[in-house]
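Table S2 (text version). Query chain:
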Amino acid sequence: MPERTIHSIINGGLGNQLFQYAAGVYFAQAWQAKLRLYTPGDEGWTREYPRPYRLAVFNLPQQARPSGLLARVVRSQRYDRLPGGRLLLRILSGASVINEKDTHAFTPADQFPAPGRNVWMLGYWQAAGYAQMVADVLRQHLTYTTPATGRNEELLRQIAGQPNAVSLHIRRGDYQLVGGGHLLLPMNYYHLAIARLREQIPNPHFYVFSDDVAWARANLPTDYPTTFVDHNDQHHGFEDLRLMSACRHHIIANSSFSWWGAWLSKPDQGLTLAPAPWVPGRPVKPALYPPGWQIINYGS
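Corresponding C-alpha cell output:
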C-alpha cells in the first residue's frame, strides 16, 4: 500500500507557522503518515511586515520545499468554484483537502473524512489541542539549530538567573494597519494582567518584547524592574521567541508569536496570562488556551 502523506503549506508569521506545523504533526501521527512541508514564499499583510518561512531555525525532521503547481492549485481553492471540483482534484492528482472548521477550534482527526493517500491541509489551526496532543514530539523538534550569541546569549544568562522572569509581549505594528486597528488590545488588559501576576508572584522582573518598543516604553508602568528587548530585527524574531520561552512567567498578547513563547517554556513551571476575547469585541474561543493558563477578561 502506498505511504500516506500529509502536505502542509506553511504561511503567515512564525507563530502561525508553528500552529500549522503542530497540526501537521498531529494529523500525521493520527493517520500514520509522513509530513511534508511547503512554503509559499515571502508574503504578509503589508510590504513592511513580510512573512517568509522561518521554521528552518528549528531541528525539524522535515525540510520545506517550494510550492509547486499542485500546491499552488490547492492553496488557491479555485477547484471549489467547479461542481465536483474536489472530486475532480482527487481523481486527477490523488489529492484530498482538509480545511480547518474554525481557526480557534480543535477538530480531532476522526471528525474528518477518511484520509486518502495525499492529504493537503489548509488553515491556521490555532487551537491548543493540536500542540497538546503531540507535545513531547513538538518539544523535541522545536529546539534551535544554532546557539544564541551576543546580546541574546547575555539575556539568556540573565533570565536564567532571575527566579521570576516574566515575558510581556505587546504587538502593534501590523495590527495598526489591519481593519482600522481593531486587533489592538486595550492597555487595560496589560494593567489587569500585571496586577494579577503581582498578586501571585513576588519580585517579578519583566522582559518586554514588542514591534513598537518606543510605544511600550511610553505606556507601560515602570514601578518594577523592566528590561526592554529591542535589539532583534524582524528577521531575527526567532531570537525573541527563544528569550520569551526562557522566561518563567508570561503575559502574552493576542498574538500567536507570544502564544508560542509561553507554550515553549518549561511546562507547569510558571504562570501564563492571556487575553479574552482574543480579538476585541469577538466571542471568546476557549479552545485557543492550553489548560492551566489564566484568562484575563479585559472587556471590549
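Notes on Table S2: The chain has two domains: 5-137, 147-297. The first helix runs from residue 14 to 30.
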